[in-house]
Amino acid sequence: xxxxxxxxxxxxxxxxxxxxxxxxxxxxxxxxxxxxxxxxxxxxxxxxxxxxxxxxxxxxxxxxxxxxxxxxxxxxxxxxxxxxxxxxxxxxxxxxxxxxxxxxxxxxxxxxxxxxxxxxxxxxxxxxxxxxxxxxxxxxxxxxxxxxxxxxxxxxxxxxxxxxxxxxxxxxxxxxxxxxxxxxxxxxxxxxxxxxxxxxxxxxxxxxxxxxxxxxxxxxxxxxxxxxxxxxxxxxxxxxxxxxxxxxxxxxxxxxxxxxxxxxxxxxxxxxxxxxxxxxxxxxxxxxxxxxxxxxxxxxxxxxxxxxxxxxxxxxxxxxxxxxxxxxxxxxxxxxxxxxxxxxxxxxxxxxxxxxxxxxxxxxxxxxxxxxxxxxxxxxxxxxxxxxxxxxxxxxxxxxxxxxxxxxxxxxxxxxxxxxxxxxxxxxxxxxxxxxxxxxxxxxxxxxxxxxxxxxxxxxxxxxxxxxxxxxxxxxxxxxxxxxxxxxxxxx
Length: 492
Ligand code: ADP
What we know:
single chain; Beta-Lactamase; Helix Hairpins; 4 domains; 5-stranded antiparallel β-sheet; 11 helices; 13 strands; rod-shaped; binds adenosine-5'-diphosphate
């Protein structure tokens, strides 16, 4: 496990806290156990107080002066707890005269408990230390004074602390082993956990770098967990899919636009060369050629305008004029302009609109552009003999609904959700840049309206534009002079 990045942070944050907690718990546990065992030993020694010794000694007979030693010997010899405790008899001069083990105690023996018991009020004292043999003991000395106050001697009780210390060392080792095992478990599970994060993050990083480098087919491998990282993987994969799709659309768009620009340019160039050749010898031909050049140039101009609008729209710079307009007057104008083209292409164009004012604040040129794009599509995708219905309705005084329905090619259900996306072309056989609907939708939105498209493949398409209108100062009836109906049918 390399201690870098997330792994290092995990180790510093989690593992160090675990270590601190384990050490604190172990130390507390060891100290409480030590104090428990030592207190138990002290309690055993405490069961022999000076008063009890005095009454025991009295039981053994003569309590007159010098009689303590004889009674003390009996006490030591018959002491019942010899297995767990050693007992010494100390005479009034402080010499050890008898030991419960039967062995003679030779040499200088350190007895701080005896010294303390001599001077304190209780007549007894405890001490933990080592015997000359090196054995660790806890000792308690109880002083015996005769009833007349003369010092008689003392009894010293001792318990060995060796077994207790050994037991404590065993428990310590057990606790340390448990801590090491627990810590190893934490480290192993932590390393699995950090690896389960670090590895996918590395893979995400590599894939993101490949995507950034232009490899839009790069995807993050399957991530097995349903968590935040899984969501991130899905988001990045989706992003790459969308980028790839946009890239494809962009490439298609460039080739479509180049093609669209080339067609009128070829016509202009061709007619220009012809006119140069014939000079002013054939005025009919010159007039026809100039007509083609002008119409193709204006088609080029429209395309360039559309591209500029689209670029403004993409960068959020598409700005509207805020002027008082009559939406229906704009629609009238556009439908009128398309009348001749529809007749030329053998398509019936039916226009049905109320004779009312539809005032709004907006940009007349942009609103017209929306109608142009929609009607242009309707004619483009409808064959000779087809029909286009343009219906304007005012369902209430604040809304105008314009629907343009055709009996054309229609759009498949798979393409329909993408139809308003920029560069999207469902039908690649018909000329068009794939941005007309995207621009129209944006303009309608900027006028606080809505553009909806419904279609049945092979049967036709309906584009419904809903726009808010303002209250007219003079209402419908005044425009037509009829107060009963505000609907007017006009066929073209
Ligand atoms: P284009 O300039 O290619 O027409 P649009 O953004 O105006 O671009 O339209 C996008 C796509 O929507 C078109 O390529 C076409 O496939 C489809 N479409 C739009 N209007 C119609 C319609 N009236 N009938 C059938 N298909 C349509």
